[in-house]
Amino acid sequence: MNGLASVARTIDRMSEFVGRNVAWLALVMVLIQFAVVLARYVFGVGSIAVQESIIYSHALLFLLGSSFTLLHGGHVRVDIFYADATPRSKAVIDLLGSVFLLIPVCIAIFILSWNYVSSSWEILEVSRESSGIEYVYALKTVILLFCGMMILQGCSTILHSILFLTGNEAAPQEEKHEVI
Q1: Cβ pair 57, 25 in contact under 8 A
Q2: Where residue 83 falls among pLDDT bands split at 50, 70, 90?
Q3: How is the chain split into domains, by residue range?
Q4: What CA–CA distance (Å, rounded) separates 140 from 55?
Q5: Were both Cys, which of 27, 52, 74, 171 would link to 87 (CB 3.0–4.6 Å)?
Q6: What separation in angstroms does the CA of 45 have from each of 19, 29, 41, 48, 56?
Q7: Which helix (H) or strand (E) holds 108?
């Protein structure tokens, strides 16, 4: 069981590392947007590539930060049953949800996106704008990375649930999230 725990912790550390680093893109987006508005309305200049960089940052933030959010229980879920469930029930829900929902959906997204991404790489797709960012194919690749990272984090969730249910791991700490 120590091997399973080690694998789960390794996946968790990867998600934590990626999530904490891509979180900086939120600040980058705000600063770039401020610069775009300032340049356009104060100085009368603009740049399509700079504007597109905001879109790229946004996509990277959400797609690569998803596994971090899953790790910390921040994804939206129907808390009708989960909120008041015992730690054991939560582990079962997490296990079944990952096995029957999260991983199959991510596999489906990966399979359905493969041709979309690979055809973009075949032509080295660039922005439709002549002065836009020339790496649309690289941005589309992040869809596949998203799927891989979410599948890995789902596997970690499964491992943690199994370890808890078999008595080989303590109950996870509850993270406080605002309920809206």
Answers
A1: yes
A2: confident
A3: 2-74+82-165
A4: 12
A5: 171
A6: 34, 19, 8, 10, 21
A7: helix 103-122
